[in-house]
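Hey,
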Amino acid sequence: MFENLVPHLPILIIAIPLFGAFASYLFSKVSDKARDVFAFIVLGVTEFLVLVLGKDIYTNGLRVYTLGATSAELTAPTGYIMPVRIILEVDALSIFMGIITVTVAFIVFIFSLKPMKEYSGTDKYYTLMFLLLVGMLGIEFTGDLFNLFVFLEIASIAGAALVAFFTHRDESAEAAFKYVVICSLGALLVLFAVALFYGQYDALNIAYLANVMKYSLLDKIAFCVLLCAFAMKAGSAPMHMWKPDAYGEAPGPVAAILVTASLVSMYALLRVCFTLYGRGLNTEVIGWIITVLGLLSIFIGVTMALIQNNFGRLIGYTAVAEVGFILLAAGVGFAGFSSTGFGFTALQAGLFHILNDALDLGLLFLVSGAVLHATGKRNLNELSGLARNMKYTCIFFIVGLCAVAGLPPMNGFASKLMIYESVYQFNPVFSIIAILASIFMLAVFVKVFYSVFLGPELKEFSSVKEVPASMLLAMGALAVLIIVIGLCPDIFVNNVINPAARALIDYGIYRGVV
């Protein structure tokens, strides 16, 4: 049965959540329980299918699906010399990101079951979450630049609406407006690059463009435009101003999934740098530019996090710094473009850190959501002593704290150690800066830990209770993944990260399919 189903998995993994986005609203008219059960089934099926597709790709290699063709693998009608149909092209990197995206979305859904029932508009919340998932999966699986733009818009619109979930707060509307502006600007930049490519080559398929690209002045302009667009969407400094506001005002589960959305933009940036352009540009110069963006993001993220009082905004600035670590590794990987040596190790480290960030920052945002659910407060100066009544949430925060700060035996230690080692071979000073930033990050979260969970118990929190079991289950799932990856990093690096990194370095396989 699965042999006949596998060729169609790329489109099914996108189509099933898209169906869920519209059908969940109809189920909500029956009852909230019916909607929740339906959403659970949709996400469970999507998770299963993405794991099946992952097993197939890691075993058999890249999978192509062509919409409108008589065969799933057909890339062009007979007689045409270039692809004209919508093509999904899923390799080890794409499915790596897909697994992260669906897994985090599933965990966020479980977390959302109880707290979101307290608010009106929950039916719209699930529709938007499904649409955001569709947008992210589309970006990861598409082999076409224009459809990448379309899916980017879907994710942006859904994300902006989710940021504005607390409609009674003016700050939420302002954060959503900033998010929309940044997303619209990024989408326009991508569309401009699409126009440049189409005007020159009459095609938008990524593999085809990579094969025929002449690296003209217009191609270099398109690269700069795409680099700016995806770095902006990822929340890199100096284009990060939307990120703390959006993460600080969004509900905890929304912020957790938005972290993954920003990492999907990082995937798009890597796809452009390695697969679309490859060695056609001066890799050392581009690598230095990306590296500098990474260092700037680390510096701004850590220093701004030190002075924050809002729990969500503080984690938001931490997310800026964590994106900086990924950019630092990616820049070194691009500068040392090879399948061996420190460049490949840096690229592995950057991809490993994408996985770890989705889990670590996701856990911290879920903890902030749990604290908001239990106390109704975000201000660190108004919180104290919660560890007495929220023991499990406190433990999960400690796990997230250690992971983000890069302390053993958590997963963040493994990926950051790989970053330190590979970057040191490129430039020792950059490695030292990254290590110091992690130390400051530890100081930031020790301050948060004391402010929120330690200290004297305030009278108003004497009756605070631990959050519901579904919320603890979601946080516990992320905590377990963090610890397991931290204890067995080699298993994940060798079997998951390494194939994804080789998919970027050995871009000829991706290009050769079309």
